[in-house]
Amino acid sequence: MSNFLNNSESHLDEKLPYSNTGTDTEQSQQKQTIRECVNASLADYFEKVDHENISELYELVLSEVEAPLLETVMRHTRSNQSKASIMLGLNRGTLRKKLKKYGMLT
After folding, report:
1. 46-79: per-residue pLDDT in tens?
2. What tens digit of pLDDT does each residue of 73-106 get?
3. How far is it, in rounded angstroms, from Cα 104 to Cα 71?
4. Do 50 and 62 share a domain, yes or no?
5. pTM score > 0.70 for this model?
6. Quick one: 49 and 4 in the same domain?
7. Which domain holds residue 80?
């Protein structure tokens, strides 16, 4: 199990081909990990909202990350739910439930 976690965590450190910070020139040269993108997005969110009125942040973040993840994987697998469930490490029934939740079930 720990090998799986170590391998999964290493994927979070893979650089993405874009950045949310800097000028357009800097953005094309910088790459951020998923973790760095989430940290930057949350820092930006906290700057823009009243901290005392934040609630259900966990569910908000999960839905903001989960929906585009599912969209991208489904596009990558050409809507093949079996391949997508394997790629995501989810039971196919769980994947279908999540797709339905976000209105992506075709």
Report:
1. 999 987 788 999 999 999 999 999 999 999 999 9
2. 999 999 999 999 999 999 999 999 999 999 999 6
3. 8
4. no
5. no
6. yes
7. 55-106
- The C-alpha atoms of residue 75 and residue 84 are separated, in whole angstroms, by 9
Whether 43 and 22 share a structural domain: yes
Query: Quick one: tokens of 43?
Result: 């820092």
With contact defined as beta carbons under 8 Å apart, do 18 and 32 qualify? yes
Contacts 24+ apart (CB under 8 A), 1-7: none
Q: How many angstroms separate the CA atoms of 74 and 44, rounded? A: 29
Q: Over the range 32-51, which residues count as b (16 or more CB within 10 Å of their CB) and which as e?
A: beeebbeeeeeeeeeeeeee
* Total count of domains within the chain: 2
Place of tokens 């199990």: 1
C-beta atoms surrounding 63 within 10 Å: 13
